[in-house]
């Protein structure tokens, strides 16, 4: 299996660095899936066991000026690598305002993702900083556990408020309770609620709007004011919100009552899906 890519455009380089930084906040270790036209960062903890899942996707042509890969085989032209997210994020931090970035799959006594950063220099010769990130190549038989999750039809789909505002609310709620209820309806209303023996706190967001498709596909006889809700771990919601440093182009929350909350975000040309299971 072979992979090499090069980014020379400064805007693309900074955008790729931001994505890597976001992933490091969302998942300690993740799977990097490389295919001829896409890169995916994947986290597939079993939802049934209370773990979160993530599927981040970007089109390689929007970032790389050069991109070559040979996958497992002609029919399965993909590569799946397991890596520590922070190692990649740390390596890419040195690439901010760099002249070029090269990423290559190498073998230096152990399998590596080698990141070479070409920095601007006062002299005619360029300075190159190289990072060897240890990776584990995932065998073909385990790929089936790393596919995009099928999202059940949500009971309610709603646009999210400004994520920074939502984060500051959830941070305060975390001091009172370890879990919260997220509820929404087809009337553009979203509530975040915590209930303890000592206090009951609710934050209301109104006039958020609902994606047009959701309003049509959800049962016609559903009362628009009726709330769909899910009880979730507050730390998992906060971890998701803490990873969002740039307000996305589109941010939607899908609630499957008592089963899961699915966040669907679009950052320019990068999509992020994040799944938090409901507590029983």
UniProtKB/TrEMBL annotation:
<protein>
    <recommendedName>
        <fullName>Checkpoint protein</fullName>
    </recommendedName>
</protein>
<dbReference type="Pfam" id="PF04005">
    <property type="entry name" value="Hus1"/>
</dbReference>
<dbReference type="InterPro" id="IPR007150">
    <property type="entry name" value="HUS1/Mec3"/>
</dbReference>
<dbReference type="InterPro" id="IPR046938">
    <property type="entry name" value="DNA_clamp_sf"/>
</dbReference>
<comment type="similarity">
    <text>Belongs to the HUS1 family.</text>
</comment>
<dbReference type="InterPro" id="IPR016580">
    <property type="entry name" value="HUS1"/>
</dbReference>
